[in-house]
Write a structure and sequence with these properties.
The protein is an alpha+beta fold and 641 residues long. The protein has 16 helices and 26 strands.
Length: 641
């Protein structure tokens, strides 16, 4: 393909000697001394599907939440992605919290907690097997220790089923009812969804009748426990029970040493695939903050990116108990709570996935593609019902089972369909995997392009997209720049594929639509004169802007001139759709558009650094990256939360 990312990847590889791969990510390990008062002081851990939040309580117990990418519930009308349980590990003698040291080891995907237990030194190592759905908890000490592990549940009154045995604890959540109404055409991934696990350990027995705790029968200087984890849709609890037993048997037939070697090998290959090593080791060093931020974000994506569903933008699988303050109230958020709810918001989700192309984490992108493919029947049904024409209406905000969630903010915000197709095009360019083409690119391309083709009228032979949104910022526009640029990007990309890659009729449709596209809106008038609110207020623009210069506009025509949110819609022609920028015509237009943007935010979904880098403003991009690298939620102890 012309302009294939392969060329840039090979060029970049040639710049760096292979010896660089020997540099360990351990320089970005996170470690702290002393206990944490709550899970807000936890560290993340995971294997791509199962996640943990791990911390030490002031009393010396080691705690962790267990989460999973497909642990969906249905006992409230919204549904949600929830925790499976919390596990409490207690040592005897207890860990002295004042001496406790907790470290996240990035190189091998583990957390080690060390300290004094009475008169002896000891450690607990926790890891989630990169190759199997099982959690390992190991203890070691200079002198023998006693140990216990307790499964703590907080929804047992509603739908928690337990099975008591002498040498293990089996627990699972069984859906007694569903309060979620699955819409027509939506995937029913809630009915009969069970999730739970089996806790067991060598030389350990259940601590009392009907107990959820295991305890060691005698002290030992070395011990290992496992928790097999499963989420599955079954018709009955008994079917899930049998599947959980089979899962546990498969997991634990592999010896710990063999499992650990393969686990560490997976993480070694992961870190050798992509790395950034710049700066010193000081916390206030700008370069180090950027490099560590890259490593920690990529680690968290790896912990959650290989599951059955895409990474949730609002907490991933690492939600926690936290006090949230605002001017009027204090909220205590439980580990099952998500601000913005259970739905996927594409505007926020997409930015987790674009970097995976550069880092080579291609397998972590496929859950996102598969998720939208699974929703296609529902989106086709939705389109036919609402608009009486074929195609699939892409929903900016939608639940995993196909419920619309956006309301007036996103009801005509359709450019996410085009960005998803652009992402799949790039994924195919990198991997050459025909599955991309056959399972996603062609069927999703047909569904989404049918929508744009049939939903809008033509004027003078050109597509006239109205009424429409320019993201969530402008609610009533003609030919929004994100959609126009997205159609240019997608149609050009599809038509650049070999003729045999597309069905003949689909290729003809793409060729016709390409001739009907309006140009990307570029104007030659002052920003403040073009974009004025109805009350006459003028928006300022930076001193770098040049009055009278040409720049991109958010849309061809803006009928509602009051911004409702803070996306710079005009810059979507730069990223994600790459119609302007370095190596393309009219770079001056792209640079001017950057300086004239209304919104300068570089947090949350803001894309300032990407846009700056894309138009060659390196210093601008660097300032934003440093700010992001040093930012974290002050209520959390882990620096990348």
């Amino acid at each position: 393909m012309t302009g294939s990312p392969f060329r840039y990847a090979l060029f970049a590889a040639a710049l760096f000697p292979l010896a660089m791969a020997a540099q360990s990510p351990s320089r970005y390990n996170v470690a702290w001394e002393g206990p944490s008062p709550s899970s807000a002081g936890s560290m993340p851990l995971g294997n791509g599907d199962i996640g943990l939040n791990v911390w030490v309580e002031p009393a010396g117990d080691v705690l962790f939440y267990i989460s999973k990418t497909d642990a969906w519930n249905a006992w409230n009308t919204e549904g949600d992605l929830v925790k499976l349980a919390r596990v409490r590990v207690s040592l005897d003698p207890p860990l002295s919290a004042e001496t406790a040291r907790q470290e996240l080891s990035l190189a091998d995907g583990s957390i080690q907690i060390s300290g004094r237990m009475g008169s002896t030194n000891g450690a607990v190592r926790i890891w989630v097997d990169a190759n199997r759905p099982v959690i390992w908890v190991e203890s070691s000490s200079t002198d023998p220790l006693g140990i216990s592990a307790t499964v703590e549940l907080w929804r047992s009154g509603e739908q928690c089923a337990l099975r008591f045995q002498t040498n293990r604890v089996a627990f699972y959540h069984s859906p007694r009812w569903s309060r979620v109404s699955i819409p027509k055409g939506g995937p029913d991934m809630l009915t009969g969804r069970h999730f739970g696990g089996i806790l067991k350990g060598g030389g350990m027995i259940v601590d009392g009748e009907n107990s959820l705790a295991l305890k060691s029968q005698s002290p030992s200087a070395s011990r290992a426990m496992t928790i097999s984890v499963l989420a599955l849709q079954t018709k009955t609890p008994d079917e899930f029970d049998a599947a959980l037993d089979a899962c546990d048997a498969t997991n634990t037939v592999v010896a710990k040493a063999e499992a650990w070697t393969a686990h560490a090998r997976w993480w070694k290959a992961f870190w050798e695939r992509s790395w950034i090593h710049i700066g010193g080791r000081e916390r206030d060093d700008d370069a180090f903050a950027v490099a560590r931020g890259y490593a920690l974000q990529r680690f968290m994506s790896a912990c959650a990116g290989r599951g059955a569903y895409p990474i949730k933008f609002n907490g991933s699988i690492f939600t926690m108990d936290i006090d949230r303050f605002d001017a009027k109230r204090i909220w205590l958020l439980s580990a099952d709570t998500r601000l913005w709810g259970p739905a996927y918001w594409f505007q926020n989700t997409r930015l987790i996935y674009w970097p995976m192309l550069a880092s080579g984490d291609f397998e972590m992108m496929t859950p996102l593609f598969g998720f939208y493919e699974s929703l296609t029947p529902r989106l086709r049904e939705l389109c036919q019902t609402k608009y009486k024409h074929a195609g699939a209406e892409f929903q900016e905000t939608i639940s995993a089972w196909g419920q619309e969630k956006g309301g007036p903010w996103t009801e005509r915000d359709w450019n996410g369909a085009l960005e998803l197709l652009a992402m799949i095009l790039d994924h195919y360019a990198y991997t050459g995997d025909r599955h991309d083409l056959e399972a996603w690119l062609v069927p999703l391309g047909q569904a989404y392009l049918d929508f744009f083709d049939l939903h809008f009228q033509r004027e003078n032979g050109k597509l006239k997209m109205t009424p429409s949104h320019a993201n969530e910022t402008y609610f009533d526009v003609v030919n929004p720049t994100p959609d126009v640029a997205g159609l240019h990007r997608v149609l050009d990309g599809l038509l650049a594929l070999p003729a045999a890659d597309l069905p003949a009729e689909f290729r003809k449709q793409c060729e016709r639509m390409r001739t009907e596209l309006p140009p990307i809106p570029v104007v030659n008038v002052d920003w403040a004169a073009r974009f004025r609110s109805d009350d006459g207020k003028k928006f300022p623009f930076p001193s770098q802007a040049k009055p009278g210069a040409r720049c991109l506009a958010p849309a061809e025509v803006i009928l509602d001139k009051n911004p409702h949110n803070s996306e710079n819609s005009e810059l979507y022609a730069i990223f994600p759709f790459r119609q302007f920028g370095i190596g393309r015509p009219d770079l001056d237009v792209a640079v001017e558009s950057y300086w004239r943007r209304l919104f300068t935010m570089n947090n949350c979904w803001g894309q300032v650094e990407i846009h700056a880098a894309s138009v060659g403003l390196g210093d601008e991009a660097w300032r934003g990256l440093v700010q992001r690298g040093k930012a974290h939620n002050a209520l959390c102890r882990f620096p990348a939360f």
